[in-house]
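Notes from the 1:1 (GR / supervisor)

We went over the backlog. Supervisor wanted to see one worked example end to end before approving the batch request, so GR pasted a single chain during the call. The sequence is below; no edits were made to it. Supervisor asked that the structure be written out right there so they could see what the output format looks like.
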Amino acid sequence: MPRFKLSVDETVNTMKFIEINTPLSEIEIDALLTKIEKIEITSTEVLSKILEAHNVKVTNVTTSGQSYYTNAATLEIEELKETMVFEFLTDLKTRTTDEQFKDILAATDQDIKFNRIGFGKTTGPKKFIEICTGCANVFLRY
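Structure output shown during the call:
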């Protein structure tokens, strides 16, 4: 089964609160904010400065303790190539005799039993291939 790695760009936003004092009514503040929203606002500080320029006193800016994601986009898909055990063993079998192949597998089995199972370690596909390769190198040198 093919494996892939996806590169994901996440845009994380934090909620900030601006407390203001103004003689304007809620309807007038809403109209002012609608007007201000047409300007590109890149931060709470920028919005605070714009509000103060419109005679709205900013008394406090606080940050919410909670972050949330507003957008996540996959930028890249990369296929991960990993030698599978079956493919490795098939290749090894073509490069060895039947007797060498059996001896290599027996030595690999003994190595795993002695060095890993005795210590409660599991042997994943990569580690199996490493151990088997080491055993094959020893057997094929002679």
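Supervisor's comment: The radius of gyration is 32 Å.
Batch request approved.
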